[in-house]
Backbone:
């Protein structure tokens, strides 16, 4: 009975406790915690975005490749506008009145979605136009100017390499919802894309309060909640701007690539894709996009990492090194070549005229097709070690992959392809298990058939031979303040071929360049006194027209400073175009200028126009 009498008291006490808790929470929300105040005022708060300065991109010597300059946009918040003088505004902004009317009608139609957002009416207007607008801005409530930085290119070097920045679209925003909104810009290709997180910086903002008439009234909390923009990190690249520019000049009116690497570090010194995008087009890529996209030579296609080609005779080095490591070849072994290699009866893989028989050094120097057919035959028919051609071929493929082919190298440059080194399973599907042998795939001996490589990969081959058996993964960004370099770009990647074997092909490469005209060296045109250039020519068959011209080299022979690959589409023999281009770049890099007795060669390359040879359909 007593418990029933106490019920009202307990109820009152419970309600009092609950009311006390509620009052404490309300006090905390309304008086103590600023976050809830800000949330309550969100509808009246206006965020004025401050865009950060994008990081500067430098070459290895401190030359600015990509800087910044001021640009002006005109923004409009449709809900803040009233009736205004369309003719005056159009005149000041240098636009047709119908442009203004159409834009405003579009904003009116989408007013619910837009709300109080500021929309970009015009982008990157000239400074003089912005100044005219600033003088009469008070007449146009809802309209304002916005200052932002855009990219500036002091040096015409590496359009495809650097990449471009453009406005983000809906798909990009969905992938990066925390960092971008409509009207923002981001790197879309090249270094700009690969290092977007470093380059972009952090946006800041000023917060203002809007009154009941939707007019900006005052700074929120006297600016205490404002955030300053944080500039992006600067990027130091491995590129030598002078060498890059020179390579672009040599490749003018030619289709193909040149890639130069510092062998000891894997740093890319130059990366030329031709034809490429001129840097003058990068700052406002949208203006030039249709023109670039319509070009039948595809200047946006970065051939250095995206084109897959047959390597041709430069691949003979790979087969020679594998033969040495497998023990089926010694440097003094001699093989005949009667203008080619005969197989399966009357079939012949042809070769140019030269003395016969040859040893390994002579075969490299003269680029003998027949010799390297014997070498690959011995690798694949080594029954003392392998039970079948397929088993031997799988081992051959392991060696080849260890040299950086048939897979992505792992460069820090975006959109890199891996090329193709065929598998035994592939041939089993085509010919049936046990239905193929060396004679079926004889073209692999000279870098033809199903092999596909990128110019970056064959430049890496040159660096690997220069280093006597290892490479550092090619990369294009150096470690600098605020920008770390992945440890993999500092490590040596050793191939499966012992380092002692490489010197046995290097002497042949040296003789190919330095033996003198008429002595058999296929690359004598590349010789530069005092530089000890070692090289290997290649002529790669091309089903779409004339052969491709290929050349790899490094210099000097001992303690090499540069390794390079030139690949010119439809340019014929390796010695005709690729060899002069690569050797001129080596001379330019190591000596700073072209010697007088090679000026004729430079002039011939600069004046050469091979565009008509290339099929674009």
Residues:
């Amino acid at each position: 009975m007593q418990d029933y009498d106490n019920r009202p008291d307990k109820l009152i006490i419970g309600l009092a406790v609950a009311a006390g808790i509620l009052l404490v929470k309300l006090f905390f929300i309304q008086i103590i915690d600023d976050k809830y105040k800000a949330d309550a005022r969100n509808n009246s708060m206006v965020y004025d975005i401050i865009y950060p300065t994008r990081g500067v991109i430098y070459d290895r010597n401190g030359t600015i490749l990509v800087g910044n300059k001021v640009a002006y946009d005109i923004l409009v918040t449709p809900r803040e506008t009233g009736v205004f003088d369309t003719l005056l505004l159009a005149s000041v902004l240098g636009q047709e009145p119908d442009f203004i009317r159409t834009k405003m009608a579009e904003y009116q139609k989408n007013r619910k979605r837009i709300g109080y957002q500021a929309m970009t009416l015009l982008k990157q207007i000239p400074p003089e136009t912005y100044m005219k607008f600033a003088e009469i801005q008070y007449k146009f409530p809802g309209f304002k100017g916005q200052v932002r930085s855009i990219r500036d290119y002091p040096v015409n070097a590496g359009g495809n390499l650097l990449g471009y920045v453009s406005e983000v679209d809906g798909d990009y925003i969905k992938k990066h919802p925390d960092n971008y909104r409509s009207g923002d810009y981001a790197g879309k290709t090249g270094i700009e894309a690969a290092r977007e997180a470093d380059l972009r910086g952090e946006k800041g903002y000023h917060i203002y309060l809007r009154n009941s008439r939707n007019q900006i009234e005052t700074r929120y909390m006297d600016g205490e909640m404002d955030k300053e923009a944080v500039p992006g990190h600067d990027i130091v690249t491995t590129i030598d701007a002078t060498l890059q520019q020179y390579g672009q000049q040599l490749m003018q009116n030619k289709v193909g690539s040149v890639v130069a690497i510092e062998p000891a570090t894997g740093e890319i010194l130059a990366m030329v894709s031709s034809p490429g995008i001129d840097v003058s087009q990068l700052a406002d890529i949208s203006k030039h996009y249709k023109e670039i996209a319509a070009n039948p030579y595809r200047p946006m296609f970065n051939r250095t990492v995206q084109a897959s080609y047959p390597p041709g005779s430069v691949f003979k080095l790979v087969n020679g090194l594998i033969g040495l490591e497998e023990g089926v070849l010694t440097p003094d072994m001699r093989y005949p070549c009667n203008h080619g290699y005969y197989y399966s009866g009357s079939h012949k893989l042809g070769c140019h005229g030269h003395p016969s028989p040859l040893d390994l050094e002579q075969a490299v120097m003269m680029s003998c097709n027949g010799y390297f057919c014997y070498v690959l035959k011995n690798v694949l028919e080594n029954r003392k070690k392998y039970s079948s051609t397929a088993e031997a071929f799988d081992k051959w493929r392991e060696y080849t992959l260890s040299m950086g082919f048939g897979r992505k190298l792992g460069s820090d440059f975006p959109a890199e392809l891996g090329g193709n080194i065929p598998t035994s399973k592939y041939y089993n599907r085509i010919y049936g298990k046990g239905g193929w042998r060396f004679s079926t795939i004889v073209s692999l001996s000279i870098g033809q058939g199903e092999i596909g490589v990128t110019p970056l990969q064959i430049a890496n081959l040159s660096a690997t031979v220069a280093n006597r058996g290892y490479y550092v993964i090619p990369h294009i960004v150096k470690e600098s303040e605020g920008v770390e370099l992945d440890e993999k770009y500092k490590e040596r990647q050793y191939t499966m071929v012992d380092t002692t074997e490489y010197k046995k092909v290097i002497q042949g490469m040296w003789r190919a360049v330095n033996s003198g005209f008429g002595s058999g060296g296929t690359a004598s045109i590349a010789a530069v006194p005092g530089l000890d250039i070692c090289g290997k020519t290649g002529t790669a068959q091309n089903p779409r027209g004339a052969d491709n011209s290929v050349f790899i080299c490094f210099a000097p022979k001992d303690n090499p400073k540069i390794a390079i690959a030139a690949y010119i589409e439809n340019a014929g023999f390796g010695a005709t175009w690729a060899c002069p281009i690569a050797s001129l770049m080596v001379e330019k890099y190591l000596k700073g200028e072209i010697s007088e007795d090679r000026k004729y060669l430079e002039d011939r390359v600069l004046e050469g126009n091979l565009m008509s040879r290339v099929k674009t359909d």
The CA atoms of residues 261 and 268 lie 4 Å apart.
